[in-house]
Amino acid sequence: MRLFSAAALTFCLTTALFAHESPTHEHAEIVPIPAYSQPYGQASAAAALEAVQALLATFDEAGRAEFMFDLNGPTRAAWSNLPAGIVDRTGISIGDMSDDQRALLFAFLASSLGEEGYESVAEVIAAETFLSTDGRAARLKWAPENYWLSIFGTPSADTAWGWQFGGHHLGLNISIENNRVETMSPSFIGTEPAVFTINGVDYEAVRDMHLAGYAVFTSLDAGQQSAADAGNVPDDVLTGPGADGTIPPTIGLSASQMSPAQQELLLSAIAEWVTVQPNENATPRMAELRDGIADLSFAWVGTDEVNTPTYMRIQGPTLIIEMLSTGGNVGDSAEGAGHYHTIYRNPTTEYGR
To answer: Labelling 180: which of 62, 85, 229, 301 has CA 20 to 30 A away?
Structure first.
């Protein structure tokens, strides 16, 4: 996940690769979102706590009540990756915030996720801005303002709490306990389009995830590729929103049947998701998965092309990763430019439970 050139100050919408064009409009103040920074030090639960307290201080009691919920209440699992025109959201949206509050929100996300995760958010919101001038945008409410923050529990260094940020093609669920990030399960990252340009900034949202999986597949010999065959491309990921507790059957090639070099490629693919969260949890999480790599399986069907039906699943006792390239677009303006759904889960620590 990466941005390839500096953001300009004015806003226009073009896609050099696919010749998509859209006019200037009112979302200029949101995209690009502020550059990644570390206002409270290296991303961590402690930095997130400082950042969220600064944000909460700008709201009165009634305002905070709009987006603060019980830690284990039903609201926490009621998230979606669908557009706001299809599924209503709880919490407070980017569009409901003042300029100062919006700046504090992005400081909170940078403090909570680290650079890789923050860039994922930037890419998803940029793609939504691309769709915001599409013919279906008004009905589906495709707009960069339509991403919501919710806080669960009372942020504290001594108690468990969590937060959720999401909207169309995004659902990040971070759980914190004892002032450390415990899990980011479940978290959904998708995009439409995947390859596009906004005002001189080239985006390849989710493409790194796709290509990392393809690198594993192409490293396999013919027999291994046959064992890794995932079969048909599903209509959607199997363990997405609303599928808490779902454990699909294990398919594909066991990592125990891979060479050390192939196992390293598999770990690199997994890291595309794990490093969305800050290093304080990403580093031990990757060490845990490396130690248990023989228990993982890898399944693949498809190609490396941006707009062809492709599906990957990496699965083990504490891990489910799915990556789906739908091979089609909803927005006419994104035609041929890719459409992805991905999910990361640790079924043993959903929402930190």
So the answer is: 62
